[in-house]
Amino acid sequence: MSTAKIARNQVATFLLLAFAGAWAVTIPLWGSGFQRTSTTQVDGPWVQVIIAAMMATPALAALAVTRSVRAVGLVWPRGQWRHCLTGFGAPTAILLLSLGLSSALGVFPVDLGHVQVGGILLSYLVSLPLFLGEELGWQGFLLPRLLPLGTWPALLAGGVVWGLWHAPVTVLGAQYPGHPPLVGLVCVLVSTVLIGVLIGFLRLVTGSVWPTVLAHAVVSQLAPDLIKAVSAGGRAVDPLLVGPASVVSWLLAAGLILVLRKRVGESGHPARPALEH
Fold this sequence. Notes:
By secondary structure, this protein is mainly alpha-helical. Helices cover 67% and strands 0% of the residues. Helix 4 crosses helix 10, helix 6 packs across helix 8 and helix 8 (181-206) crosses helix 9. The radius of gyration is 18 Å and the shape is globular. The two termini are 18 Å apart.
């Protein structure tokens, strides 16, 4: 553990604002009786607006605390284009491997005959500002301020916080439609810890949030769009069996984390640019 101290007041204020904001903006969903029951369900415009507003709350909370864009990782260090390619390419490769394994296991029938790659990529690009809202908070603000705990505890804690923050929509079936709320909450926590560690590692290596924004958008935007596009007959899938939040992806992510942990050591950290505090 580092001898540096966590800025407890800053972190506590940030968490209060981010969590309170998430619950506040989703009140209309609760009041309307909204429930996501299937991965093929199309959300109305008002639902999309509410989700977009929720995604902005971590950034707004971080900026309210720091009043500085540099203090939340909004920088462009040298060589960032290469890191951005990694931010897009690495999670995309893991996604494709995961979908291939799910298909081989017989839980994800695939039809590649009608895939509109251009449309999927366009949707991905348009979504990036939304994911910047989350990443400025989680990886830009929170992760550097948890590093006094040690690299791996900070990464794990960040993943837990990220998962708990999703609770207002998780219990409404957002990530695991068709499953009981408690199952959804537990599965989201597993997913955010595993995915969060990998995205956080990218933040530490690059010193910027831009690659993490690209990675997050692959997981939460490109992946669902691709799954819908290649699912045979357009049938609904179980996110617990197919996709970046599936058991298959959990195993792949856990394996990669073990490799990274062995490479950098249990309490060490990857070589990285200095992070703005």
